[in-house]
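Hi all, a correction to my earlier message: I attached the wrong file for N-acetylglucosamine kinase. Here's the right sequence:
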Amino acid sequence: MTEHGGVAAGEQLYVAIDGGNSKTHVVVGSTGGRLLGFAHGPTSSPHHIGVPGTLALLDSLVRQAVAQAGLPPDTVLSRADVYLAGVDLPVEVDTLSKAIGQTGWAAEYRVDNDLFALLRAGTVAPDSVVVTCGAGINCLGRRLDSRVARFLSLGEISGDWGGGHHLAMLALWHAARGEDGRGPATALTAVVAEHFGRSTVEEVSTGLHLGELARERVNELSPVLFAVADAGDAVARSVVARQAEEVVVMVAAAARRLELLDLPHTVVLGGSVLAARHPLLHNAVIEGITALAPRADIVVLSDPPVAGAALLAMDALAPADPVAEAALREAVRTAALAGSVAATSA
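and the right structure:
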């Protein structure tokens, strides 16, 4: 490839996508670790917007990133790595792979669940487990011998519990029951009512039902739950403890299926809920994992998951280069914070 925008001859270009339940990041970069284009948007999960909606949104974001990179709109990149929440089943991977393969973005593609990007962003260790607790909850494990342990992650119908959306709803649920006597008294009752500017939780529930309050606002209650728990409320603390238990159970189940519990391996904690390091949750998760897998090295993800998507593309296109990886990670961190491309040079 000829030199372009600081890209040296011989370097290949890729597009990498991380699409979560709340946001999507798209990177156009080079195998030399340069970040050339960056775009961001709302959720691209097909569970939320359907496959046609996913394709339309991603195509728009890819075009933005390609244009920002200074490339012609019809440029065919060397590779596209696409990792999305809601791509959980083999049939979903296959459907989206075929659809994205027709976009013309790149010469070769990989499409899979966003946990693969999160895992690569968190560690290069071949024996590893990643759990994400953001809007939802999911877990994935892998071994050097290529074995993978994953979960359906389809919500309650597949045995899932927790995640930010669920925790927020539980805050409202307990607040309502504490107010009307069906449940124990809890500080959540007064705090939830005050959060929505209402006198009672009954007024909050009525407002949500009648559309006076947007349903999406319920998601604001996840941090409220943790604040009330930190203040000592027994009901809120019980919910946080249950979430910690679920995170530990998922990690242990994946590690057990891969026969990693008694072996050295890395556990990556990701997603907005875990990344916030709420003391009650964080400490319980660390203690629980350590008790079951004492040789595990536990890390909290610090880089945006799209960095992992980009690194997976780079891994597939060229031999590993620690200098290029470090440059890419730094550029993505800066771009994700700023919402624009960070000028990089290697």
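Sorry for the mix-up. The radius of gyration is 21 Å.
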